[in-house]
Structures are given as structure tokens and as C-alpha cells.
Specification:
The chain is of the alpha+beta class. It contains eight helices and six strands, in the order αβαβαββααααββα.
Length: 256
């Protein structure tokens, strides 16, 4: 029986059984030691979100679970009456607010492309739509000196300046709404529509598409149905595996 020596008694010249750890990052082929020391591998960043790949991201990056917060989730259409035939045949893809560019100074919306729109709205058209809306809202809410002018004129006219829609912010928002309506007219007959921002309180950009008929996995009713189907299938397999026994007729003749 051998006992391992403590670390302070071990001979440093002897080879160790544990292999050396692998390098954390590859060293680039360069002769500059500072460039090699500061080298960090970079990975390409994409802003395309799909239903299939979002659940298979690496463990290091946070993944968005499938649900109403997912960019590709088809929401029921709240902009139409319940009795309308389009209310059941259309869904809403919500583009959420992006608070990073301007914070709360002006509404800005995410440029992440939901791939569920690929059949109706291409990635280039989507980015043109969101980019134009973001630029128009930024110009309307962050005008230099425009806010003070509208405030002074509002006080001087008893707020009639704003009631008549003459304020610069309202005028800029009307321009954005007019551009969105023009975008909608170019897609009449396709079942695609971008709803006005005032309907959502500028909290999201709602894009209407035909119902993609995506089955939501994980609901309680569907889990119960799957369990019942599995139980019925197991009973059928068990009945099929049981051997069938048949009794032969008694043909013996009894002698009196």
C-alpha cells in the first residue's frame, strides 16, 4: 500500500499524472507580444431570431424560452373585433421597445429580425421599416430647442397650440404614422399590416400576418392528451404481446 506524498514533499522534477490544462484561446501568428497577450477570439453576432435555433443556443448565451416574450411568438390579434373573420385568421408579431439607443428620450424598437416573418416580410424590408420608424421618432422627440418652443407657445395660447396638433412632437409622430400607412398600402392583399404606434402606446411595433398555425408545445391540455395517448398505446402493445391460449375440444369417448 502506497500513500501519496504531500505537495510540499513531492519532487518537482518527477512527471505529474495530470496533463497540463489546454490553452483557453489560440495564440495568433504574430511576433508582437502585446498583440498576442491582448488577443481575444471574437465570434460573429447575428440579430436573426428563429424558432428552431433559439432553443439550441450555447449555454454561455442567454436563450429566450418559447412564450409571449419570444420575438417569433404569434400573439392573438387585439386590434380587431372578436367577431371579425380576420381576428381568428391573423396573428400579431410584436417588435419590442429597445431602451439602449436613447433610453426614455424617444421610443426606439428592436432591430432583431423574427424569422417567422420570412414568408411575408423579408429581412431587408423589416429593417427598413423599423429603421425608418426609429429615425422618425428620434427626430420628433429629440429636436434641439423644439421642446422649449412648444412649451412656451402652449402656455401662451392656453395649451391650444398642442390641442390643435401644432407641436413639433405631434407633427413628427403624424409623419411616422403617414409613412407606416404608405408602407401598408404597398402590401394590400397579402394579409400583412403594421398597426399604428398609438394603438400600443408606443410600447411595441405590431405587425399583422396570416396565422402561421404554429403549435405551442408545453401546455397542460396537450401534455394530458399525450399522456393519455401513451397510456392507450402501452395497453394495446401489452395486449398484443400476451400469448393467446386456445382450449382443444374434448373428443374422448367414455365407455360404460
Amino acid at each position: 500500500m502506497t500513500t501519496a506524498l504531500p505537495s510540499f514533499l513531492a519532487d518537482p522534477s518527477l512527471p505529474t499524472t495530470n496533463p497540463p490544462p489546454p490553452p483557453t484561446q489560440p495564440i495568433p501568428p504574430t511576433s508582437d507580444p502585446e498583440a498576442a497577450a491582448n488577443y481575444a477570439p471574437t465570434t460573429g453576432h447575428t440579430t436573426r431570431t428563429s424558432i428552431a435555433t433559439s432553443s439550441r443556443r450555447s449555454s454561455g448565451a442567454p436563450s429566450i424560452p418559447w412564450g409571449p416574450a419570444h420575438p417569433c411568438y404569434p400573439h392573438p390579434n387585439p386590434h380587431l373585433p372578436l367577431k371579425s373573420p380576420l381576428a381568428g385568421s391573423t396573428r400579431i408579431i410584436r417588435v419590442p421597445r429597445d431602451w439602449m439607443p436613447l433610453g426614455d428620450l424617444a421610443p426606439q424598437y428592436s432591430m432583431t429580425y423574427p424569422e417567422i416573418l420570412e414568408q411575408w416580410v423579408g429581412e431587408r424590408d423589416f429593417r427598413a421599416l423599423v429603421g425608418r420608424v426609429n429615425q422618425g421618432l428620434a427626430d420628433a422627440f429629440t429636436r434641439s430647442g423644439g421642446g422649449w418652443k412648444d412649451a412656451l407657445l402652449g402656455v401662451a395660447t392656453g395649451w391650444l397650440w398642442e390641442d390643435f396638433g401644432l407641436a413639433g412632437v405631434k407633427e413628427g409622430c403624424r409623419d411616422v404614422d403617414a409613412w407606416v400607412e404608405e408602407w401598408n398600402r404597398g402590401r394590400e392583399g397579402e394579409g400583412v399590416r403594421c398597426w399604428g404606434l398609438r394603438r400600443t402606446g408606443y410600447m411595441s411595433l405590431d405587425i399583422q400576418i396570416p396565422d402561421p398555425h404554429i403549435r405551442v408545445v408545453g401546455t397542460e391540455e396537450e401534455e394530458e392528451e399525450e399522456e393519455e395517448e401513451e397510456a392507450e398505446g402501452g395497453q394495446e402493445e401489452q395486449q398484443a404481446a400476451e400469448p393467446t391460449t386456445t382450449t382443444a375440444p374434448d373428443n374422448t369417448v367414455r365407455a360404460d
